[in-house]
Amino acid sequence: MGILLDAETRVCVVGITGGRARADTERNLAYGTRIVCGVAPGRRGQRVAGVPVYDSCAEAAADHRIDAVIAYLPPRVYRSALDDILAVGPAWVHVVTEGIPLHDNVAGLAAARAAGVRLIGPNTSGIITPGQAKVGFLGHATWLMSPGRVAVLSRSGGFTHDLAYLVSQAGYGVSTAVAIGGDAVVGQSFADLIELCEADPGTDAVVMYGEAGPALEHQVADAIAAGRFGKPVVALIAGDFLDDHERGSVFGHAGAFLEGPDTRAAAKRDVLRAAGAYVATSVDDIPGLLRAAGVPRNQQ
């Protein structure tokens, strides 16, 4: 079944005439995603792969029901464009954009919360419910993952592919894969999304990839310990080499940095393990941990 996205979700692509967005739109339509409209100021009347383009989300919403938005936005127009998106009230908006200034990001996330709209990202590669629909540039190599009952949640877009492939090759398959975003502050945390996984009858377990940095994994541990999430969680946490660096040192993503002792990779593993999660020391451990957790494989 999957979370957030399925074959019936009506998607609007903001920034649809840009090169990246255009290419993703074509591939995602071919996959089966129900992209009903696009937005690009000054381009009203154009079409991208048959999708009608409007000057604003308000104009698009007058002609189409919009359930969700995938946004490709230059950082300089992020806040004004996000206000236009939020005004039409989609269930969620997925923000691909990297390099949004922190103060604009925080203000945008606050605006989304006030509007009751889930914001995934920013700085994220996409969402896929295998066999049904996908947004962003996640899952273009569709052979990497097969439909199944294990959700994949990841800080890293690239690692989302790796984990989904691993889970699929091990015979479990993927219910939904979500790259939550690599910025220091993101709209939907792991804990937010595992609540959706808990409610999803098509998800039996979660495989999660985290990194040293903000304490998102501690929130997951709290949810498990409090009984708010009862399905198995298999977690892989990277970033041990940062222990030898000064506080504030960053590796890769803007959100992967040494913030303090409790946010080191080892500390996150300890907290998750104590709460009852299955903690991997390498990707090779993950299939065995799913077996140990009693997660059933796909019936072929």
Automatic annotation (TrEMBL):
InterPro entries: CoA-bd, CoA_lig_alpha, NAD(P)-bd_dom_sf, Succ_CoA_lig_flav_dom, Succinyl-CoA_synth-like
Ranges for domain CoA-binding: 4-100
Nucleotide-binding recorded as keyword: yes
Key words of the record: Ligase, Nucleotide-binding
Entry keyword Endoplasmic reticulum: no
Protein name listed in UniProt: CoA-binding protein
